[in-house]
Design brief:
With 240 residues, the chain is of the alpha+beta class. It has seven helices and seven strands. The strands form two sheets. The protein has a five-stranded antiparallel sheet with strand order 1-3-5-4-2, sandwiched between helices. It has a two-stranded antiparallel ribbon with strand order 6-7.
């Protein structure tokens, strides 16, 4: 059974712009298929998301009397996807069902009013959702309170997300303590590396097949020459 996959990451101000540009395809990643870009779906714009973050920072400063630190976490990015095998058959229908179910879960879990932007990517090998959230708690910026400081918080999020996606035939990954769960950046880096490896293997296979075809042609030529000489000598003969 394929897995439901959730990754969550806190973002600082310096990381926001680049991440939004990636999600909304203002920056095209190397593993994007240009022919499939038109099949992506977006909610909101990078500028709208940035404006809402700035408004909340100002509200926080007014409420606390302190300026928000430059290195403070100002947004939360959630990546939602599933094992590649889940999307293989009846791909379009499954992608739409997955997105619908995953977005409903995010709204129920974090609040629809906290969604800054969403992007459904279909131009990469495995469809996935990026959702940016505003870590607003009591009308102030508070990423720690929003995500929660308890060490089991992320594990419980994984539990609830997997349960919500179970009707689609997805299950929870290994919940064992001590297992390293990749970050969104690590997940992307691994997929980019896997894609490069796949392309390299395909090139090697192509070269091997071409060499095999050349070998087949050479074998045919040799067989033809052998037949010609056997005919001259009155038919096939065994060597003694």
């Amino acid at each position: 059974m394929p897995y439901a996959i959730l990754r969550i990451e806190k973002l600082k101000q310096s990381q926001i712009q680049r991440a939004l540009q990636h999600n909304h395809r203002e920056r095209i990643p190397l593993n994007s298929n240009p022919d499939l870009l038109s099949r992506n779906h977006y909610y909101g714009t990078p500028n709208e998301a940035l404006n809402r973050i700035e408004i909340l920072k100002e509200q926080t400063q007014e409420a606390t009397g302190r300026k928000v630190r430059r290195d403070a976490n100002v947004a939360v990015e959630v990546l939602l996807t599933a094992s590649p095998s889940f999307f293989v058959f009846r791909k379009n229908m499954k992608t739409e069902k997955f997105a619908e179910q995953a977005i409903a879960w995010v709204k129920a879990e974090f609040g629809a009013h906290r969604i800054l932007s969403m992007a459904l990517h279909r131009d990469e090998r495995t469809p996935h959702l990026h959702i940016f959230l505003l870590p607003e708690v009591e009308e102030k910026l508070n990423c720690k309170a929003f995500i929660g400081g308890h060490r089991d918080r992320l594990s419980r999020l994984q539990d609830r997300f997997s349960k919500a996606m179970a009707p689609l035939g997805l299950k929870r990954g290994n919940p064992k303590r001590g297992v390293h769960h990749t970050t969104i950046r690590e997940w992307y880096a691994q997929r980019l590396n896997d894609d490069k490896t796949l392309q390299r293997l395909k090139r090697k296979l192509g070269a091997a097949l071409r060499e095999n075809e050349q070998a087949k042609e050479y074998i045919k030529l040799l067989e033809k020459r052998i037949a010609e000489y056997e005919a001259r000598l009155g038919g096939p003969r065994e060597l003694y």
